[in-house]
């Protein structure tokens, strides 16, 4: 279909694509979103079956200020589209064993067992400080100091380094940048940074678990990302009405109001042309002036563009460090799950071995760290009466062999591990089940090596070291989403869409 002058096709409807589309439509551009799958949202799609509804991808609603700022840019607020509820506890952690000193005595949020501890992280910071103090003398005060640093990193980092795109090295040689960077934790790894505050391995894990959302490990993620602890402890963990899929619905409704046209079941096969004369081949043919790709960057370059129009070689993409894939089990079960919280983490004391099997020597972890999400604890609409809805997510290395026999064996290992370490035996209560893992990510989302998230936030893949929003070889072609700055995670992809739209507006300002 031939589109009007000053038209833009956005390929992919993940959070980066939906965000970019809204900002571009708000400038008056004629925006069409072209989505491969049958529903919008990219990795934030839904699975609905037999009365159960699952968020298939992201399930944590963090950084509420980013969503408020996004909707505020259009004169709206999140509450115009969905309500949110702050969770209590924010999340629960089961530690698999008792390495390190045991809690010194009864403390809020801790249940000590012979084989491991259960810890609830509360919205009440004073209560959480008592929890930390029970594990390590002085840890409560250390937590307060850590969060002060985390809040500084968040406030300065978000305003000057996340919402501001700096795609070239010379952009960082600005005196204002140097002034704002003073005092931030720009050097070193998260492991080194956390060890400067806490000795107890369990407390270190509590401060580092958010790295899962960034697709990194403690020893390869920059210390700047301690800002995530401000997100966790101070801003809180919320649940949006309808789950993360409800947020997608809100953004799509906003896009409708802005005049965006959505096209689903349209897998793009090729991108040809330059600014003012593109041809985007899908089930239909689109002829826009400009193109924004929210499809995975590597897929766009290697599969949709001819070799001479690629900004990076195949060798470049093969050499990158990718965020983990995920082994997911979606389960509908009979009865309640009293032992689990809405968000539950199950962690081995030595999770370095788990990260090693994701990043260093890829193989299926035999003592996995994993996450359990039980939205039916908060939302009555996600499961039939008398039933619970949950999924288990194990971070695993991208590119592993996941033949059916391997999937079934690993499924049994995970369900056994859940029973042994949380006291919840699901195996005789399952009424609905579906597995989703590495090859499924590659097939459904065209993700490189089946990564669930994109490029990891390693020391050499952060900020200017990530691929740019502008194509290096094709005028009028832009990129958004988790491969670009600011990076991985729903809030970061929202901001990525804004940065991409700003780049488009800078390069092709509309007349009048």
From TrEMBL:
Pathway: Carotenoid biosynthesis. One of its GO terms (biological process) is carotenoid biosynthetic process. InterPro entries: Amino_oxidase (IPR002937), Carotenoid/retinoid_OxRdtase (IPR014105), FAD/NAD-bd_sf (IPR036188). Keywords: Carotenoid biosynthesis, Oxidoreductase. Residues 16-504 form the Amine oxidase domain. The keyword Oxidoreductase applies. Residues 96-118 are annotated as: Disordered. One of its GO terms (molecular function) is oxidoreductase activity. Gene3D superfamilies: FAD/NAD(P)-binding domain. PANTHER family: PHYTOENE DESATURASE. This is Phytoene desaturase family protein. It comes from Halalkalicoccus tibetensis.
């Amino acid at each position: 279909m031939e589109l009007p002058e000053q038209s833009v096709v956005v390929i992919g409807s993940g959070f980066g694509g939906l965000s970019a589309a809204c900002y571009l439509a708000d400038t008056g551009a004629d925006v069409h979103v072209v989505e491969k799958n049958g529903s919008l949202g990219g990795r934030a799609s839904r699975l609905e079956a037999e009365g159960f509804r699952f968020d298939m991808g992201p399930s944590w609603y963090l950084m509420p200020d980013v969503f408020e700022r996004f909707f505020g840019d259009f004169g709206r607020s999140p509450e115009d589209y969905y309500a949110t509820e702050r969770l209590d506890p924010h999340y629960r952690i089961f530690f698999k064993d008792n390495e390190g000193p045991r809690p010194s005595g009864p403390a809020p949020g801790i249940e000590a067992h012979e084989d491991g501890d259960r810890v609830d992280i509360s919205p009440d910071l004073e209560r959480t400080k008592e929890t930390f103090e029970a594990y390590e003398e002085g840890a409560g005060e250390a937590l307060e100091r850590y969060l002060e640093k985390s809040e500084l990193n968040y406030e300065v980092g978000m305003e000057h380094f996340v919402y501001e795109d700096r795609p070239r090295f010379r952009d960082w040689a600005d005196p204002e940048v140097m002034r704002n960077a003073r005092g931030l934790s720009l050097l070193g790894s998260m492991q080194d940074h956390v060890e400067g505050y806490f000795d107890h391995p369990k407390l270190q894990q509590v401060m580092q678990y958010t790295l899962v959302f960034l697709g990194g490990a403690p020893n390869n993620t920059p210390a700047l990302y301690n800002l995530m602890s401000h997100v966790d402890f101070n801003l809180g963990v919320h649940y949006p009405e309808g789950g993360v899929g409800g947020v997608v619905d809100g953004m799509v409704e906003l896009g409708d109001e802005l005049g965006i046209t959505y096209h689903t079941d349209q897998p793009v096969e090729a991108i040809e042309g330059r600014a003012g004369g593109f041809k985007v081949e899908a089930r239909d043919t689109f002829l826009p002036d400009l193109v924004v790709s929210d499809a995975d960057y590597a897929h766009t370059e290697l599969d949709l563009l001819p070799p001479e129009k690629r900004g990076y070689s195949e060798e470049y993409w093969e050499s990158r460090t990718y965020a983990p894939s995920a082994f997911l089990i979606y389960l509908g079960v009979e009865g309640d799950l009293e032992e689990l919280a809405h968000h539950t983490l199950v962690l081995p004391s030595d999770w370095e071995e788990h990260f090693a099997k994701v990043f260093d020597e890829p193989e299926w972890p035999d003592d996995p760290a994993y996450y359990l999400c039980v939205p039916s604890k908060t939302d009555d609409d996600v499961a039939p009466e008398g039933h619970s809805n949950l999924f288990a997510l194990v971070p695993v290395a991208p590119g592993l062999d996941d033949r059916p026999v391997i999937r079934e064996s690993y499924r049994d290992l995970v369900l056994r591990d859940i029973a042994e370490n949380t006291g919840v035996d699901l195996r005789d209560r399952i009424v609905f089940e579906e597995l989703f893992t590495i090859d499924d990510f590659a097939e459904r989302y065209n993700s490189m090596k089946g990564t669930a998230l994109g490029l990891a936030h390693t020391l050499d893949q952060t900020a200017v070291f990530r691929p740019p929003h502008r194509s290096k070889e094709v005028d009028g072609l832009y990129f958004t989403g988790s491969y670009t700055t600011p990076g991985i995670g729903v809030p970061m992809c929202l901001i990525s869409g804004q940065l991409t739209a700003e780049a488009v507006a800078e390069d092709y300002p509309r007349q009048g």
